[in-house]
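Hi there,

I know you've been waiting on this one. I reran it after we fixed the sequence typo, so this is the corrected version. Both the input and the resulting structure follow.
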Amino acid sequence: MTASFRPAPAISRVQSNGLGIALMATAVVFFSGADTAAKFLTGYYHPIQVAGLRQLGLVAGVLVWVLLSGPSGLRTTKPGMQIFRGACAALSAAMFIIALRYIPLTDGISIAFVAPFFVTILGAVLLKEKVGPRRWFAVAAGFAGTLIVMRPGFAGFHPAYLLVLGSAFLFATRQVISRTLSNTETTMSTVAYTAVVSAGLLGLVIPFVWTPIQPQHIWLFVLYAALAGAGEFLVIKALEIALAVVIAPLQYTMIIWTSILGFIVFQDVPDGLTLLGSTIIIASGGFSLWREYQVKYAGDRSGSGA
C-alpha cells in the first residue's frame, strides 16, 4: 500500500515540483517492488509475519532519522490519536498482505486505490469538508471501477477482495487522522509513532505464526523492508518540497509497475475487466485531484467545494 498523501506545512511545501515528482516516481517504484516481494514471501511465510517485518524496517528507518536529526521532532500532543493511527496501519497492512496471498498483485493494487474515495467520504462526514457534485460523481465512478475489478457474483470473485477494501478503508482513516494531526504534529512524529505502534501490535501476533526464515529468503526480507522504508521517506521528502496535488497522481503509475512485476514474477496477466476497472479508477481519481487543484490553487470556487 501507498503512503499517506497529506501536504507538508506551507512554508516549505512549494520549492521544487520537479524534484518532488522525481522523488515520488521513485517511491512508487520502491512500493511496487515491496508489494511484489510481499506477495512472493506469503507463499512461504504467514502474512502477519511478512507485514510485521515490513513495519520493523520502517522502525529501523525512523531510528536512523533520529540518530541523524535528534529526537526533538518526535514530540506529540495527541498520543491517543497517534496510537489509533498506528493500530489502523497495522491492521491495514495485515489485511492487504493476507489478500495478496490469494489474488493477483495488479487486482490488489487497483482495488487499494479506492482509498482516496473513502477519504472524500470520511472527510465530508467526520470533518465536514465541502464536497461538490462533480467529486461525488468521481467517487461513484471510482467505486464502480472497483466493482468491475472485483466482479462480485462472477466466478473470478475471491473473498480476499473484501480484505483489500477493508485495508483501503483503514488506510483512508489514517489519512483523515493525519489531517486532524497536521496542525500540531510534525510529519516525522506521525510516521514514527505509526511505525512503532504498528510494529508493536503485529509483533504481539508474530510469535504465534512465526516460521523460521530460510537462508535464501533473508536477503529478500531485507530488500522488502528497505524498499518499503525508503519509499515512505521519499514520499515525506516529496511532500515537503512539492505540491501534493502535483505529485499525488504519480501513485497511479503503481498499477503499471505492479502489472509488469506481476507478469515477470508470477506470470499474472491482467484481464479485460481488470484493465477496464483500473482505467475507471485512475480516471476518477485523477479528476478528483484536478478538481482539488482547481479549488485550492486556481481560484475556482464553483461546485460547492468541487
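Quick highlight: Residues 134 and 306 are 6 Å apart (CA to CA).

Best,
R. S.
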